[in-house]
Design goal:
The complex is a heterodimer of chains A (261) and B (386). Chain A is α/β, with parallel strands linked by helices. Chain A has six helices and eleven strands. Chain B has a four-stranded mixed beta sheet with strand order 1-4-5-8. In chain B, strands 2-3-7-6 form a four-stranded antiparallel beta sheet, with helices on one face. Chain B has a two-stranded antiparallel sheet with strand order 9-10. Classes of the chains: A alpha/beta (261), B alpha+beta (386).
Chain lengths: 261, 386
């Protein structure tokens, strides 16, 4: 099976995010990692390759530093990695990113495309489904179990819903977005890291993908402002020994100030 | 000058940090309390390539540099100094001398098993009357009928209980001191080698420390490591690398103390404010961070020099001296800032404090390191010969 995995480099979810006064995120000292869901997507692809043979190609659209996330996927065992890097992609929205990824994947006749369910930086969960539409592939999102019957050309996947499990049969090729409960990603081993070091990470700009900036779409949303959430204000303390007066004060706070009653 | 870690270094750091946080930290306190050897963790560490960090790929290792090893050892020690020392000894004191001084056949025979975690190594130098004065050791090695026969008692051997391969230093030549010593690759399965008394320790309790007893232990002639009479040189060259590993361990411990304390002082309230709002606390944390940084950079420098094939005895001693004293000092500060909570096993700083002490003792006490450094400055006697 030939599998393409789409990955993204994001800030570590434990890292404190600082918004710069003139917009954008201050990346100084910010720990950037492979999106956790994408680690699970890479793991799923590696397991399919171990089961059926073939190749695992990882692709990321992003700035130069996104190479590190690709390198991690190579160290886990992926065969090839490509970085889609173009000034036109710097401020791209989700659909534009999906169009660039689609242009990369289309000529590669993948048996499966695997993405994380969402990326932990903007939580949109759009790129995977949009990519499936652009590639005209059937899709199953947020899967928690994946069984492939290579010979029959189909996959059985489980989606965990509130109080139920949905089991889908999906013809291949298909696109899947994965839940973190799908598997336990392997650590990149030290020998794996050294092997990955010797692999080339290909870089493609829009021209190499056969696209122009206009092809990405020109009517997308643009970022107007980015601001830190307002600081939390101090709580209100109800003091005094009289319980009835305290209850009254709290009820009035909930009704008038918090407006929850 | 270049202070950036390479892309691989950063990837190793993330990987080992992640591995340690998931696989070691949750069980570190229990391993310490039960003084239990963490076989499963060591197998998983081996699968990750941590048992043969600097071993070439043709011998099953990762072929990384010494700076990478410092990164690995710091991250492991951040989680458990006991687990780390098991890994560090096998890497620095066993794989390293085989790589540097072993024959092709010795490398082929021993390195893949060590690097893949099928075999564990230990280093047998210290004896009851030869600790800091290691070159006075008395274990005998006699060539009889084409094989070496070793007899003596080795003390304080890390990994002594579980090790499959022991590098044993013994007196094989007439020459006195270091020039009379040779190093031997002794398999535990050879006749005449046994584990003696197993020690009960203050810290690094999940690693074993034992006697290794040699009673007419027969060792094939081809298991001589390096040449006859080269044992002293091998032991000292090996200790340069070992000291870098212990410096990294001490950095990991000091960082653990710093990180746990930084988190604690924000949550602990005294006199109506968080502990972190007192300047005494702030300055203690700033001093801890300063010394951790200095120690880490000196460990990197020593490893970097050694990677270039340069002599690093002074730099390795410097790194171990400052790092070990930083670990002791920082864990001591941490216990004090935790107060009563620092003295009980519910919080990890109690363990860090106990673990830190050994870093000032093994692979060269602070006193011996000061001796090494002062000799380099003013000669061996500290005065001009008349």
């Amino acid at each position: 099976m030939n599998i393409v995995v789409c990955i993204k480099q994001v800030p570590d979810t434990e890292a404190p995010i600082r918004v710069r006064s003139h917009g954008g995120i201050d990346e100084t000292g910010l720990n950037l990692v492979m999106n956790y869901y994408d680690e699970h997507a890479t793991e799923a692809a590696l397991r399919l390759r171990e089961q059926f043979g073939g190749t695992v190609t990882v692709v990321a659209a992003g700035p130069e530093r996104a190479r590190e996330a690709l390198r991690q996927a190579l160290a886990m065992g992926a065969d090839e990695a490509t970085l889609l890097r173009d000034a036109a992609l710097d401020a791209a929205d989700h659909l534009q990113v999906a169009r660039a990824l689609a242009a990369f994947i289309r000529p590669r006749t993948a048996d499966a495309v695997i993405c994380g369910k969402l990326s932990t930086d903007d939580n949109a969960a759009i790129v995977g489904p949009a990519l499936a539409e652009l590639l005209d592939l059937p899709q199953a999102t947020a899967i928690a179990k994946l069984e492939v019957d290579d010979g029959a050309g189909r996959a059985i996947v489980h989606r965990e819903l509130e109080g139920a499990v949905e089991v889908l049969e999906v013809p291949l090729p298909a696109l899947f977005t994965v839940e973190r409960s799908l598997n336990e990603p392997r650590y990149p081993s030290l020998p794996g890291i050294m092997k990955a070091k010797r692999k080339e990470i290909a870089v493609m700009d829009l021209a190499a993908l056969g696209l122009s900036a206009e092809d990405l779409g020109t009517r997308g949303a643009t970022l107007a402002t980015l601001a830190a959430p307002p600081a939390r204000t101090a709580g209100v303390q109800v003091n005094g020994a009289d319980p009835e007066a305290a209850v009254e004060a709290i009820v009035s706070f909930l009704g008038e100030r918090a407006k929850v009653l | 000058m270049e202070f950036d870690l390479t892309e691989e270094h950063r990837l190793i750091q993330t990987t080992v940090k992640d591995f340690a946080a998931k696989e070691i930290t949750p069980v570190a306190a229990r391993l310490d309390q039960e003084a239990r050897f963490p076989s499963e963790i060591i197998s998983r560490a081996a699968a990750l390539g941590l048992m043969g960090v600097m071993v070439p790929e043709e011998y099953g290792g990762a072929r990384m540099d010494g700076v990478a090893n410092v990164i690995v050892q710091e991250e492991l020690a951040r989680a458990s100094a006991g687990v780390q020392v098991i890994v560090s000894v096998s890497n620095s004191l066993v794989c390293d001398p085989i790589l540097r001084f072993g024959t092709a056949e010795q490398k082929r025979r021993y390195l893949p098993a060590l690097a893949e975690g099928r075999s564990l190594g230990c280093y047998c130098l210290t004896e009851p009357s030869a600790g800091s004065d290691a070159m006075a050791l008395e274990t005998r090695a006699d060539l009889r009928g084409g094989e070496w026969v070793l007899s003596g008692r080795k003390l304080f051997v890390t990994n002594g209980v579980e090790a499959d391969l022991c590098i044993v230093y013994a007196r094989s030549e007439e020459a006195p001191g270091a020039r009379g010593l040779s190093a031997f690759l002794v398999e535990k399965s050879f006749p005449g080698i046994a584990v003696g008394n197993v020690e009960h320790k203050l810290g690094i309790r999940c690693s074993s420390t034992s006697e290794i007893l040699l009673d007419d232990c027969r060792v094939p002639a081809e298991n001589l490591l390096g040449g006859r009479g080269e044992g002293g040189r091998i032991a000292l060259a090996t200790l340069d690398g070992g000291r870098i590993g212990i410096a990294a361990q001490a950095v990991g411990l000091a960082r653990a103390a710093l990180e746990e304390t930084s988190a604690h002082v924000k949550e602990r309230w005294v006199f109506g404010r968080p502990l972190s709002e007192f300047q005494a606390t702030q300055w203690a944390l700033a001093d801890m961070a300063t010394r951790v940084d200095a120690s880490r950079l000196l460990a990197y420098r020593a490893a970097w020099l050694r990677d270039r094939g340069e002599r690093c005895t002074r730099e390795a001693a410097t790194a171990k001296l400052i790092a070990s004293e930083t670990a002791m000092w920082a864990t001591h500060r941490a216990v004090q800032l935790f107060g009563g909570y620092g003295y009980i096993q519910e919080y990890p700083v109690e363990r860090y404090f106990r673990d830190a002490k050994i870093t000032e003792i093994y692979e060269g006490t602070s006193e011996i390191l000061r001796l090494v450094l002062s000799r380099d400055l003013i000669g061996s006697r500290g005065s001009t010969p008349r």
